[in-house]
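Dear colleague,

Following up on yesterday's call, I've attached the two folding results inline so they're easy to grep. Please treat them as preliminary; we haven't cross-checked anything against experimental data yet. The first protein's sequence and structure tokens come first.
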Amino acid sequence: MSEPAAVPVQEVKLYARHVKLYPKATRGWFTSWRWTMVWFTQLLYYGTVWLEWNGRQAVLFHLAERKFYIFGLVLWPQDFIYLTGLLIISAYALFLFTAVAGRLFCGYACPQTVYTEIFMWIEKLIEGDRVRRMKLDQAANSPKKLALKTLKLGLWSAIALWTGFTFVAYFTPIRELSAEVLSLTVSGWSLFWMLFYAGFTLLQAGFMREQVCKYMCPYARFQSSMFDKDTMIVTYDTERGEPRGARAKKSDAKAQGVGDCVDCGICVHVCPTGIDIRQGLQYECIGCGACIDGCDTMMDKMGYARGLIRYSTEHAMQQHWSKKEIWAHVFRVRTLVYATILLLITCLWAGALYWRNPLKVDVIRDRGSLARELEAGVIENVYRLQIINTEELTREVVIKVEGLEGAVVASRADVTLAPTSSVFVPVRVQVPPGVGQPGSNRLRFIVEQPQSHHQVVEKAAFFIPR
């Protein structure tokens, strides 16, 4: 009996090997806007932390004091609902922008995009353009190559460390943090988060780059649920561009039977994620418009009309809509629903924030004495009231009680609250004899500011011994 033939071993790769990208620098309208957003976001991020307001840092999420300062607004742990509302508003705004014009946030304002642009600019400044960078990486190690790589890494690290320092300064007052860093007395946790954030900035913007957008960012995976055929996205005009092919500038494209695409590959070379937009919409596309600027440059050189690659919609490409018709379809059911919900939530959030009561009160019974009987049968209960003044204004408040007939505050009823302060006030409440039932009785504390008519009503229990 013959032996069975040997089955050849076939190697199957589950993951494609990473190929380093060398995006080519380009110029154009979208590139200018992208760099405008780089400057805007970085001035906002690095500059805001140095602003002052009422003698303190203007924007500070002070973890030690458990207070969030946002210019004139001071939020306490009890105000967490307002931060939650802000996150919901941001999410719906992202949904709306995505439904209208695709991944605008990814292409122009995402920190990954912004810092990648900065790091690539430094790389180009030190190592040269795309071709020179490719040759440098392929060349054998040499003192010159080592010097260039070290200089680049040093500048990247400096930016990353400053970014990490600024991040921590939003949670620890920056002037205190600066003094601690200069004196080498920075706390362990501050140092940890500074280096942690700096390390991630360096890793993601300097080395991982497009891999973050492709494999780590969840937004790329669920963006399709917010797209439809009327969403404006970066598109390639297949009808106009195909069949593609190289040709001389003065040649007649129609006579050669080719489209406007000269197959130069510049749209691929300038793409920060390395995709070919001519293959249609792909989840890796971040909508930065670099391919539009690159293609328009080539169209200008060839003497062709711009817009072979442009922002458009699937329906517009299929039905040859004009710009007016494209914008007419922006206000459709999906975008109107998103806009309505966003407007409603924003108005509710802004209204709740505007009419927020600056006084907060917690009533705590004195555990050392539930109730005691005084002269002439008067019953007294002792409480501790925690009164919080959430604003940066001095407030005069008065403590009152109601709910039991004849109940009075026997201790001092007026309290002065310093700006953004929390005080514990001992309060003695007395009830005349014969009022209420033995056991627990309902009582209400009223803390009000007569000048502004702000008041807080808190329920409590008044205990009468049997």
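Below is the second protein, in the same order (sequence, then structure):
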Amino acid sequence: MSSLEQTAAVLYGEQKYPQALDIYLSLYRKNPKTEKYSIYCGSCFDALGKPAQAIKFYQKASKLNPASVTTLLALSQLYYQKADYVNAVKFCERVLKLEPHNASAYLNLGNIAYCQGAFEEALSYYEKVYLQDEKNYLALINMANTCFDLKHFASAIEYAHKALKLYPSSFDAYLIRGNSYLELGKYTKAEEELLLACELNAQNPWVYNAFSRLYQKLERWDEALLAGWKALMCEPDTQDEQHINFGYLLYEYMAEKGGTLAAKYAHQWLEKFIGNKLVLYMANAILNNQQIECAEPRYVGKMFDVFAPDFDTTLAGLEYKAPQFLAETAQKVCSKPFWRPLHVLDLGCGTGLCAEKLKKTLGWCLINGVDLSAKMLELAASKKLYHHLQQADITTYLSQCAQAYPLVTACDVLTYFGNLKIIFNLVAKVLKPQGVFIFTVSENRIDDADYHLMPSGRFVHNISYVKKLLKYCGLSLLLCDRKALRTEGDKIVYGYVVAVRKEFTIAK
């Protein structure tokens, strides 16, 4: 090893990556066909958080030595970090052709499958590693975490226990055990495990999130709210999920105990996070501020990203019938020639519940879906119901849409808009002449206002306001049925299934 190379190695070991990189680049330029210099440059770029440059140098190294397992694993890991799962899998498979039992490759494949929501597949890869080496901590902790997501809580506890035998100070193992005991209803054990996790890492928001859910189950509401607040304080720059969790915690507290303490926290929330639009919206919903006209798009997107994995089963438990009502209405009011498909725009398409019912009812349809949530769109795509899917705010999408549709649907979407004027005008713009718009709104049974923002962050509407606005926007009423759309707790949520036809366009 040359003195320059030794110096670079020392600098790299001291985490002085820019200085180390300068030396390695000079060595690479002088020796472009020496594999190790490409690898060293790739490692430095990776350490500097520059994956594109790292990949470039690892690819150079791979061309010089296609059988280098080290290089192939590095490429797989970098593509995994970029969420380019196709290439990540490709390089793992190349490793396994060279070394059929390579544990790192199986771990990478497990992580890729896990990120894609294929939990059973991920578990099978982690098990391959565990069968080779029962003392592999990463395999055990990943198995525990995956079993938790599969709702195999007893197995999650067992694997986390084995991980703790190898690494007694594992925060992740204690957190998984705490959450698993919580799901099993063993609250004393859950609290014990979570306290141990908190001793190891008092700055992790997810341990406080777990405490808030635990104390809520135990009806220790003061402690639940305090834990939720602590979760917000842990990561001031990356806590959208914690904001959403805290907002729902306040909403659930109000439903159980009333508004005094919730209002106190909502004011405190607004003061602490001045300028945060997500907080502005959720806190004002708790405070019953009726000046808010629509939901914050970031709130809607993030909220449904969080709830996407359990969305369909949760709605089934709420006796959610809106998609079926909407499809039945479409069958009544839409004419569809049998020789060509009906083109449909599904606004706020979610996981495809509405599209599924429409296709069963109307037959041959080409449906385009739009939604804010990437996670919901992933699930919709997996059902193969849509001709095209796009992630966008629906007002932005409609204002830029060049295509005209004979049918537009919005199932349980307008509940995130108070003032419906902009939406109705934009829908009228994208409807073909005599085109039909079918949507649902929740009924305002609170007051006589046109719309009312609920503590849940959802709007309810006065049907007379809806009808008046539709007429103003050139949309004539075809049908308006009051229905029980779903349940919420022990209450029935009533609303309206509305169908309108585009008769004329008013220039606005």
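For the second protein, one point worth flagging: Residues 240-257 form the longest helix (18 residues).

Best wishes,
A.L.
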